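Bit of a strange request maybe. I'm writing a small parser for structure token strings and I need a real example to test against, not something I typed by hand. Could someone generate the tokens for this chain?
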Amino acid sequence: SVRGVENNGLMVVHLGPATTRNAFGFQETGVNNNGRFFVINEGAGNAWGVVSSLTGGTVVNNGVFAVQALHGFAIGYEFDNEQSFENRAGAQLLVEGRGATAFYTGNGGQFSPVTITNAGTIVAHSLDLDTPSVGLHLAALTGNVTTVNNSGLLAADIAIFGDDDFTTVSGSPVQKVNNLATGEIYGLIYLQ
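Reply from user aminoacidic:
Good idea to test on real output. This should exercise your parser:
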């Protein structure tokens, strides 16, 4: 079966200050957003826009996708198996928390190549000075390729972090970053 959500309107997940629970927009699905999507956690927990271990395809943001955790960690999109992402012109992916990651993909390229295309705005902001924000966290296995094509704005303390999914030995994943003529990247680019 195919799991997916398409938002063309307004969707809000809001947990108030008295909660200690985590806030999730969606689990185990992809979300194509053409509208406005907000996940806000004012309590002590974390906040995720989407967390999924599903594989393949491309998730598209063509609207506003915002995640905030005032006292916890915030993640916009977390895909524990490879997932491509397109943030189209005019779209915004905004993530803020006491640690913040806008987009994470793991096992990149294991089943198919992963491509991240940003023509809009991706911003991750950390409310904790000791925990840097991450725009794109790209984890992959040996020889697998993850490509970033940026013609928009990408801003975070660590704009792009290329990670090695091997935990016991060093692998050799490949991360490519193409910053096009209109692209702006603010923050560290760290590739392994």
